[in-house]
Design goal:
Shape: elongated
Largest sheet: none
Radius of gyration: 31 Å
Distance between the termini: 68 Å
Structural class: mainly alpha
Order of helices and strands: HHHHHH
Oligomer: single chain
Number of helices: 6
Length: about 160
Amino acid sequence: MIRALLAALALYLLTIAGPAYAVRPDEMLPDRALETRAREVGQELRCLVCRNQSIDDSDADLAHDLRVLVRRRITAGDSNDQVIAYVRSRYGDFVLLRPPFEITTALLWGGPALILLLGGIALARFYRRREEALIAPLSPEEHRRLSAVLGEGTEP
């Protein structure tokens, strides 16, 4: 009983734990509103080294440099969209965690659905062929041998 309670407590603590930020104290802006904006922008930008983390979540040196750049631009008076556009102009769409849907990113957005569709078609074809092979009609020789084994045609 105690183990179950401890496990439930541990699970609860894990679910309420907030995201772990890699932002260093020396990077933080003294103005709370500007720091909040910098965090919002940082959550939109991908770490180019880690590839699956935002720059706020990454400990990589490049992520640190991007966090400093974001904070400089925000301090200079840029809006969140202007900061993102500036970083995007330097690093391309790949720096965005949610790239826009364009012709060049269509495969990125539609790729998973396309893979699922092709996999479903391949599975359907595989099982259809397998079923056809299992249900093939008996040849006359096989039919004669089966009748002989089952004793059809002979009276008991």
